[in-house]
Design a protein that fits this description.
By secondary structure, this protein is of the alpha/beta class. The chain folds into 2 domains: 5-18 and 272-382, Lyase, Ornithine Decarboxylase, Chain A, domain 1 (Beta Barrel), CATH 2.40.37; 23-271, Alanine racemase (TIM Barrel), CATH 3.20.20. The protein has 11 helices and 17 strands. Strands 1, 11, 12, 13, 14, 15, 16 and 17 form an 8-stranded mixed beta sheet that branches. Strands 2-3-4-5-6-8-9-10 form an 8-stranded parallel beta barrel, surrounded by 4 helices. It binds ligand LLP. The site of ligand LLP has 20 residues, from β10 and α10.
């Protein structure tokens, strides 16, 4: 994504704050992800939670990806945006009855099921509707993802998935449920994983669990290894290492596995194409720092306030000598800060600021706190 003078000039005429999506970057990312996965016979479901903007969703659907949804609304939205029901999976530790009914009515590929209690409810609702529910069991592999604590999902202390020690019980109960069709197994260990060795450990665990199921005559048709591939927030132009990532699974999953292998990628597909564009409202001196107050805050991009997440911040309109600033938003919360002591060219009221790598978990996590308006979206090919 390059902010040429021409692009910056056009962005200036839009009302800030808004998300700017570079559609060439999105297409390039999707091309590589789809090429590298297809070359190894893998399927990718896009994790809709990362960004459900319809323009982004429709573009992703055009590349033939499936959809990974975590609510009834996401499931309906995915189908409206062109994803196929047969390639849509529905995950989540707390699916409501209404959401389960939605999934069954739409005829999705499978429910990623997280507990015995959920299996029983799924069976009952499917029976009532005269349907069969296809299920992949989400197994908590107890693998440390070495990422932000708050977005680790695959260890024993997390609420997600079925613990390995419970599998015997789950399989016995599942065999007694007439409206459940067992399709396979599902894993997800966390998000923003940058140490790819973690996925080797996941492969080892998948191999063991595959054997466990196959020994009991339950050879999985589908093995879904989840998502989580991290991106380089320091260098937004670098595309995620799709080749290295898919290679790990190709090399470390057992050769004898005949199941189809699928992935649920969110961040790595959409983060790089999006920037939050904001205007500087005020520059003000604090006791120990100079604050740049933007017209975007935690309501537009929550990640820094919620996880102390780092996003590269750029001033698109100043070429003056560099100074250090604390960049904050307008919301009435101290954590509404994008970064402290950030080097920026001397910044003034009216300058245009880009907060990079915000195409995933940016617009999707926006809120109306302080009764602020939701951010708009602007696309490079319609600029
Ligand atoms: N599959 C499951 C079951 C998940 O829970 C997630 C993300 C994904 C796939 C997609 O993971 P990805 O490829 O995007 O890393 N709001 C946080 C991220 C939360 C991720 C939740 N689950 C953030 O802003 O970093």
């Amino acid at each position: 994504m390059t902010f040429t003078r021409e692009i910056t000039g056009r962005l200036r005429s839009q009302r800030t704050p808004f998300y700017y999506y570079d559609m060439d970057v999105l297409r390039e990312t999707l091309t590589i992800a789809s090429r590298e996965s297809a070359a190894r016979g893998f399927t990718v479901h896009y994790a809709v939670k990362a960004n459900f903007n319809p323009v982004i969703m429709k573009t992703i659907a055009e590349y033939g990806f499936g959809a990974d949804c975590v609510s009834g609304n996401e499931t309906e939205h995915a189908l409206n945006c062109g994803f196929q029901a047969e390639e849509t999976v529905f995950a989540g530790v707390g699916k409501s009855d209404h959401e389960i009914e939605t999934g069954l009515r739409l005829g999705i590929k499978c429910f990623n099921c997280e507990s015995v209690a959920e299996l029983k409810v799924l069976d009952e609702i499917a029976g009532r509707m005269g349907k069969k529910a296809s299920v992949a069991l989400r197994i908590n592999p107890n693998i440390e993802a070495h990422t932000i604590r708050n977005i680790t999902t695959g260890t024993d202390e997390n609420k997600f998935g079925i613990r390995i020690t419970e599998l015997d019980k789950v399989v016995t109960i599942m065999s007694q449920l007439n409206n459940i069709v067992y399709r396979g197994i599902h894993f997800h260990i966390g998000s923003q994983v940058t140490d790819l060795n973690v996925y080797r450990n996941l492969c080892t665990r998948v191999n063991q669990i595959y054997d466990w199921f196959t020994d009991r005559g339950l050879e999985p048709e589908v093995i879904n290894v989840g998502g989580g591939l991290g991106i380089n927030y320091n260098e937004p132009e670098i595309l995620p290492p799709f080749k290295e990532y898919f290679d790990i699974f190709s090399i470390h999953l057992d050769r004898k596995i005949r199941s189809s292998i699928s992935f649920e990628l969110g961040r790595s597909l959409t983060a790089g194409c999006g920037s939050l564009i904001s205007s500087v409202l005020f520059v003000k001196e604090g006791a120990a720092e100079t604050f740049v107050i933007l017209d975007a805050g935690m309501t537009e991009l929550l990640r820094p306030a919620l996880y102390h997440a780092f996003h590269l911040i750029e001033n698109l309109t100043s070429e003056l000598p560099v100074k250090k600033y604390t960049v904050a938003g307008p919301v009435c919360e101290t954590t509404d800060t994008f970064g402290k002591f950030i080097a920026l060219p001397e910044t003034m009221r009216g300058d245009l600021i880009a907060i990079r790598s915000a195409g995933a978990y940016g617009e999707a996590m926006a809120s109306r706190y302080n009764l602020r308006s939701l951010p708009g979206s602007v696309f490079s090919d319609k600029l």
